[in-house]
Amino acid sequence: MVKISRLLLSNGGTAIGKTLSEILVCPLSKQPLRFCEESNSLISDTIGVSYPIVDGIPCLVPTDAKIIETDETTNNDGSVDSSDMNKDRQ
To answer: What is the DSSP string of 50-76?
Structure first.
């Protein structure tokens, strides 16, 4: 545990170890989370929620989460799926 803490602190508290990211899931959807370096948060693509990482510790409390507002829906592979948007426009 100490080794993990030192690794996180040496990276400025922004790194999430590969093992940890494989274990963590969204507390609401129970789906895997994706690390976003840009916002320093864990993203649940399934429900469009962002969980902050504070001092290297993921805050997975639903009340701390922020809803991600996007114009387009992204698939798990990172591609954009605009078929849902086209349905809404018709």
So the answer is: EEEEETTEE---GGG-EEPP-SSEEPT
What single letter denotes the amino acid at residue 7? L
Residues contacting 25, CB < 8 A, separation 6+: 31, 32, 33
Assess contact for 74 and 68: CB atoms under 8 A: no
Is the distance from CB of 42 to CB of 89 less than 8 angstroms? no
Q: Of 8, 47, 15, 5, which Cα lies nearest the Cα of 28?
A: 47
Strands 49-54 and 41-44: antiparallel
- Could you list the pLDDT tens digit for every one of the 90 residues in the chain? 555 555 544 554 445 677 787 889 999 999 999 999 898 999 999 999 999 999 888 999 999 999 998 755 455 555 444 444 444 444
Give the tokens for residue 17. 């170890």
